[in-house]
């Protein structure tokens, strides 16, 4: 599997040494695709409005259980091609109310990798 490589800080395209748009390969490509999938707000993708997490309707500004949020993240991660299983581990919340954690992935090829939230 390949995907366009995104800069970790800006989430923008990156160029390679030759000036071409850089490409990522598995397992990093799968991890990046999972990170993208859990960042999408439900209804945000024009061509498939069913994709994404229900941030506006069920998560942001709502009293929501962490177990339900973890389940939503894990379900979304499993929809990404190449992911066999996903476990969301929430590690804390900052004074600015920013939730942090990781998603532990097992890929269909048998390798394991981690995505930071």
Plain-language structure description:
- With 117 residues, the chain is α+β, with helices and mostly antiparallel strands.
- The chain has a single domain (2-116), classed as Nuclear Transport Factor 2, Chain: A (Roll), CATH 3.10.450.
- 26% of the residues lie in helices and 26% in strands.
- It contains three helices and five strands.
- The protein has helices at residues 28-39, 55-59, 66-78; strands at 2-4, 23-25, 83-93, 99-107, 112-116.
- The protein has a three-stranded antiparallel beta sheet, with helices on one face.
- β4 and β5 form a beta hairpin.
- α1 packs across α3 (66-78).
- The longest helix is centred in the middle third of the chain and has 13 residues, at 66-78.
- It starts with a strand and ends with a strand.
- The mean pLDDT is 91.
- This is Burkholderia phage Bcep781 gp51.
Per-chain topology:
Layout: E1 2-4, E2 23-25, H1 28-39, H2 55-59, H3 66-78, E3 83-93, E4 99-107, E5 112-116
Helix pairs in contact: 1-3
Helical amount: 25-40%
What is the average per-residue confidence, as pLDDT, rounded to a whole number?
91
| Assembly state | single chain
Largest sheet: 3 strands, antiparallel
Strand/helix succession? EEHHHEEE
Q: Nearest-angstrom radius of gyration?
A: 15 Å
Count of the separate structural domains = 1
At the fold tier of CATH, the topology name is Nuclear Transport Factor 2, Chain: A
CATH class: Alpha Beta
- Uncertain segments are none
What class would the helix/strand composition place it in? alpha+beta
Tell me, briefly, the overall form: globular
Task: Write out the strand line-up for the largest beta sheet, numbering strands in chain order.
Answer: 3-4-5
Number of helices: 3
**Any idea what the CATH architecture is?**
Roll
Q: What percent strand? A: 25-35%
